[in-house]
Fold:
Amino acid sequence: MRDRPVVGHVPVGASWVLALRPDRLLADPAALELLRATFPPDRLERWLSSTAIDPGGERTAHALPRAAVAQYPGGVLLVVSRLPGRLSASTTDMWFGDHVGATAIAGEPVAWKGLSRALRDRDDARLDRIEDHVLRDLHAAHGDAPVAVYWPAPLGLPIDSGIGVLMSHQRALVVTLSLPKDGRVAVAIDLRGEFPPGADEGLRNLFSAVAADELGRGFGLDTAVDRLRIDPHPEGFLVSFQLDTERLRDGLARFLGEHLWPTPS
Structure:
């Protein structure tokens, strides 16, 4: 099945999971510009082809419909919905840089390679069912997003600060980004947990503080404060806002780039 979900096949225990819809991202010129800003020069095409996310370099013609990157204590796992062609021996080195990595197709055995022994020695090391119900529930609500970052566990922030106290009962969260439209990208943060009374005002103050510092201004959060929405729901809060595409692109290039994708030695 071409559009087979992959997040549900990520083994339990990931600290975070980045879920992508590559065929939709690569088909959108503005989204493609944001991707290019996230990578050092000339790295994007090599990354797409070496991971088999877009092996032919033809973007929508051969791009994978879904892919997920999961971070574990011992390394990183790339899970894809299908693999056109074969991966080369250098694929994981190209894709993960200095990180140990493995690649798997949803529903097939995993070549764990250098990942942590806790994962490699699993008796049920197959990606053929949903194991993490928190991740499953988050994905059920946000699985259609072209970009989503899932944290299926508490962030564990120190409680000696305002943000730590506010988030002390947070259980999970997901951040989603839309495709650019009319020069803006819609961002939603779904916070799950038991929050104290007045948490919505605390979240608004926290957002304003983050938006005012250098990192927040670099991504254009300062322009989103006035139209910030914080809506309660039975599981927590949905925080939503929009970012200017050009400011977001500049922030990706400035604060990520070489830091996110180090050149392999």
